[in-house]
Amino acid sequence: MDFVTAVKSCLTQYASFSGRATRPEFWWFFLFQILALVVTSMLGDLAYSIAALLLLLPALAVGARRLHDVGRSGWWQLLTLTGIGYLVLLYWWVQPGKDGGQA
User: Fold this and answer.
1) Contact 28, 3 (CB under 8 A)
2) Which residues of 15-35 are buried (b: 16+ CB within 10 A; e: fewer)?
3) What are 44-94's pLDDT values in tens digits?
């Protein structure tokens, strides 16, 4: 999956928390999100805030689908609230997908 296809896929499934997301789809969207936030931060605080809010739901959805691909529940994303839990999520997000992951 290439950059444009991954971004289109994530934005069209912006509120779909079921199914699976491959590693390339997740990481290409992650890169898109970082680039979009860097560009909008140069435009001002308001532009950055709007972009961050617009990308929040698609990021949560693709994160949940990526966790489903490795056999975890999307609810594990709540670990980000602990701070250190982000490292656990990062470990799971880089793992290859499983054949019998949750859907």
Assistant:
1) yes
2) eebeebbbbebbbbbbebbee
3) 999 999 999 999 999 999 999 999 999 999 999 999 999 899 999 999 999
Verdict on whether the full-model pTM lies above 0.85: yes
Do residues 98 and 71 make contact, with C-beta atoms less than 8 angstroms apart? yes
What CA–CA distances, in Å, run from 10 to 17, 42, 57, 85, 97?
11, 24, 10, 24, 17
Backbone CA torsion sign across 84, 89, 75, 64: positive
Q: Where are the domains of the chain?
A: 3-93
For the record, the structure tokens of 65 come out as: 């689908």
Shortest CA distance to 28 belongs to which of 4, 52, 54, 51?
A: 4
